[in-house]
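Shapes recur. One chain:

:::
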Amino acid sequence: MDASAILPKSSVPAITGILGCVGLGLGFSLVSALKLSPGVGLAILLGSTAAPMWAAELRRNSASRFRDLYLIPSRNEIRLKFENFMAAAIIWLSILCAMQATAAQFISGFFEVLISWFYAMPIFFVAYFFSKTDVGRESIGELFRFLSRRPGSTVPWLAIRVHVIKAFFLPLMAHAAYTWLVRADNAEARGAEPTWFVTWFAVLYLIDTIFGTLGYMTTSKAVGANVRSTETTLLGWVSALMCYAPFHKIVAAAGLTAYQSKYEWHDWLTHGGLVFNVWAVAILFFSTIYAWATIVFGLRFSNLTNRGVITSGPFRYFKHPAYLSKNISWWLISVPFIPALGVKQAIFHCLALIFVNAIYFTRAKTEERHMMRDPVYREYSRWIDENGCFARAAQALNPFYRVPKKPVRES
């Protein structure tokens, strides 16, 4: 009989996310008290959230000390850094221009933050050139050397994929954080939704998007947030990109994800009644799990990458708590099963939301396949299969239930 699996230690301590939440709370209080503009406010929130987490992770990662700074970088080091910068600029400008042309309304908040950081840009450049980063054959600068037809150069595919992921998702996440900051700072009752519900819903998604934005901003080895590997399959990329602009517009244009209507949960239930309040709390409960699932990543949140295995927080109970809670909350918010617009329309809305659920199910499975290359994740997967909520529920319902053995993919 196989020995029981042991839950691996999480790559990010719980205290890291807690410190980030404390910093975010202090920053939000400052932004609200001073009534700062959303662009400046978001910049402050990102800094106040990141600072305590960076400090904690720098202290925890013994490899990162002041010795990791170049006091006087050599000419060769400066040249390699410049090549890294130029190669990254090619990718970032290409993607940002494409996004501006196809989905400008979904990234405008990102540029608001950049404008607020304009005068700090020289500091960032100095810090970049005086800090040790990867300038070897696996760095993004190898792309510049390859395009320059330098002998012996190769295409650094991993570095390219990392920069494509960051250049695509960072503007989207920053814009989402910008939008939720505006809503959280000016929360008012919408229709029959009470103000307390609107406020907390906006705050939860603000927390989620702030931590998500920092994840794409921070991929440094100094804080252990470097990318170990990325998704390489077409299905993995397509299922992830279908959930974001501008690709989600293509799917929506076909009507495949049109599960929403103007008739939502607060239109269905009697305002202020017991069921109304219980339903609202249920939505906030699943939204809290969703935000919590991002907080526990600390500085390491990112789509399509492996940056360490998270086993704490809600990941102790489910492999994909964010996807699960988000999809359940969509059913509770949109109530597509209510035939307010007719039975046919209710059936159509339900099928559309099931299609959305199927997209996230596919994302979950492709992520598992990618992460199973990591031995730590394989041990975590075994532990969840034996001790997760679904396994315990199956054991409670069927005393003869046994965890099915699954083939393990080594690479």
